[in-house]
Amino acid sequence: MTYEAKVIAGGKIVIPAKLRREMELEVGDRLVFEREGDRVVLKSFRQVIREVQESLKKYKRPGVSEVDEFIAARRAEEAHEVARGSGSVQDE
CB-based burial of residue 81 (10 Å sphere; 0-12 exposed, 13-18 middle, 19+ buried)? Predict the structure, then answer.
């Protein structure tokens, strides 16, 4: 589908209402403009995040939570610091 918009004062562009609805855009949403040669592709920030997440899926190990691993590593570091007697910032 093709839409038309006009650049107004201050470089502002009003995105047509139908396109805003189709893209599920709301007031305050962030947008990304990607230049591809002589074209510009408009994406919602949410879409860019989804694309990045999709591209990183190949690195995810099944059954492993990177968040849980990170938390476990931080707890181990904290325990090591406490054992060395330096404590943590929270103890001060």
Answer: middle
Phi, psi of 15 (to 5 degrees): -80, 130
- The answer to whether 32 touches 45, Cβ cutoff 8 Å, is yes
Secondary structure (DSSP) of 20-48? HHHTT--TT--EEEEEETTEEEEEEHHHH
- Distance, in Å, from the CA atom of 20 to the CA atom of 24, rounded to the nearest integer, reads 6
- The answer to whether 8 and 29 have CB atoms below 8 angstroms apart is no
What's the token pair of residue 28?
A: 């305050």
Q: How many CB atoms lie within 10 A of CB 12?
A: 9
pLDDT, tens only, 2-54: 999 999 999 999 999 999 999 999 999 999 999 999 999 999 999 999 999 99
Give the pTM: 0.56
